[in-house]
Amino acid sequence: MKKKHVIYSAVILAITADNAQAQSNVTLYGLIDSGINYVTNTQTGRNANGTLNGKSSVSMSDGGVHGMFGSRWGLKGTEELGGGLKAIFTLESGFGANNGALAQGGAMFGRQAFVGLTGRAGTVTVGRQYDITGDFLGPISPAMLAGISGCLPGDVDGLGRSRRINNTIKYVSPTYRGMSFGAMYAPGGRTGDLTGSQVWALAANYTLEDFSFAAGYFNARDPNLSAFGNNPNSPGAASNNMGSIGSPTAAQVNPIFAGYASAHTYETYSAGASYAIGHATLGLVYSHVAFKALGDLNAGPNPFGYTGTAIFNNGTATLTYLLAPDASVGLSYTYTHGGGVAGHEGSTYHQLTAAARYFLSKRTELYALGTYQIAHGTDSLGQPAVANIELLSASSTNHQFAARAGIVHRF
Predict the structure, then answer these.
(1) Which of 48, 102, 223, 293 is deepest in the core (most CB within 10 A)?
(2) What are 350-396's pLDDT values in tens digits?
(3) Domain coverage including residue 228
(4) Domain total of the chain
(5) Do 111 and 131 touch, CB atoms closer than 8 A?
């Protein structure tokens, strides 16, 4: 009798699953971005006397390394619930196209993993999601030209959408007369500290014909853990998830702000606008970034004994031009000035990126891009600032050039 009951239950579950599937819509999607990179002055380590070693390199790489896009695949779906309300979900995994390895620290769905509801009142989603300021301002930043390759050094303001936040509740309003807004909150969940590792952000935009304006605010407590250290292989507060000081055999990582891992709070203010004139589109963005209350060892290490606040003021200008329905070119300039901390003059970074894209079809495109960066001053590691194009190994000098030719296929 018990066996019959188990079989009967299994049949009922199967029928229920079939009915649910019939009422829902699930889509498999993704893209593969692969190409060839050439990089000058790639840092390889440090000599016994403290000077940096470096050399040029040529390599095959995934689009997540100085490319237009990071390779990914995902599943997304909707279910009609009635009255204009839908259930939605997205599961998205990043991977290396050249070796098949999982990206985002080995997370199975490290790019996105969320579920929610959408309807006339807006959309609410819960899970691992992009920072909402990147959602609203990314489309008018240099990311619209060359993906994350054109963003600020270290993607210091997050508008290159290089960071995702775990345990996030996000709301995005419907668009009303060209205006929409959104908010997100992640509680953090540190025992005994209600605000420890919490993240919250606000963003809004307004569009009128060819003009668009967007603004956002982002705030993360213990950013070394909450904003930069939220992948499966990310260590705790005793380690630096923002970067590294390097070694005799390893390059430095994010020397732009790696020294600020002990910040109690990381916050950004950003605003930008874009305007389309014929086939040309101009985008301008300003962002203010602060690593505040340095010296909090519950957040991260502080090998240089920093206190106070480190500030970055940034500006970007991007111009794209549509040569034909299937071809475009563009140019972007980014300026980053780090105010440094007491006893340091700070650092300044100038970066120029050029890109060209040609679509062989709606799903397949060829592209070429080049980025040049030059640095001045003293960086967060207390050394003469070195160039560090986002996602590439830091330079051994104050300048660096990277070029890439690649192909993207969407499915």
Answers:
(1) 223
(2) 999 999 999 999 999 999 999 999 999 999 999 999 999 998 999 99
(3) 35-410
(4) 1
(5) no
CA-angle at 94, arms to 92 and 95, nearest 5°: 140
Write down the pLDDT at residue 2. Answer: 41
What are the tokens at 43?
């840092």
Residue 316 lies in a domain: yes
| Both tokens assigned to 161 | 């959408």
Inter-CA distances, 42 with 62, 98, 334, 373, 389, Å: 18, 20, 21, 13, 10
User: Which of 27-36, 95-104, 145-154, 181-190 is modeled with the greatest confidence?
Assistant: 27-36
Asked, for residue 8, whether it belongs to a domain, the answer is no
Instruction: Give me the mean pLDDT over the 29-54 stretch.
Output: 92
Q: What is the Cα–Cα distance from 363 to 407, expressed in whole angstroms?
A: 11
Whole-prediction pTM: 0.90
Residue indicated by tokens 């070119």: 329
Smallest CA-to-CA distance from 254 within 350, 142, 395 is with 395
Q: What is the mean pLDDT of residues 254-280?
A: 97
Look at phi and psi of residue 167 and say left if phi exceeds 0, alpha if psi is from -120 to 50, else beta.
left
**DSSP assignment letter at 121:** T
Average pLDDT over residues 121-143: 95
Q: With respect to residue 14, please indicate whether it lies within any of the assigned structural domains.
A: no
The CA distance from 153 to 309, in Å, is 19
Residue 115 lies in a domain: yes
